[in-house]
Amino acid sequence: MVGAVVDSAAEVSIISDRIYEAMVQQPPPRLRDVKLLMTRRDASMPSFVVGPVDLKIGNCWYRKHLHVAPKDVDMLLGLDILVNLG
């Protein structure tokens, strides 16, 4: 189980690189490299997109692509997931 923080200001959902590397089963495939833009001027963070990843939130399952980045929290749930959950 992974703890997640809801971030209603984030456009995309992110898992930490530590969680990605520690996945017991085969980690989802790396699809492309991206640069995430931060709220500070001229700030960015390297990341890559993986997927699809099966997520269980409550009693519901979702299949999504996620960004992997060096974060201190295990996972950020962004608008890409929150909007689809209603």
From TrEMBL:
This is Peptidase A2 domain-containing protein. InterPro entries: Peptidase_aspartic_dom_sf (IPR021109). The lineage of its organism: Eukaryota, Metazoa, Spiralia, Lophotrochozoa, Mollusca.
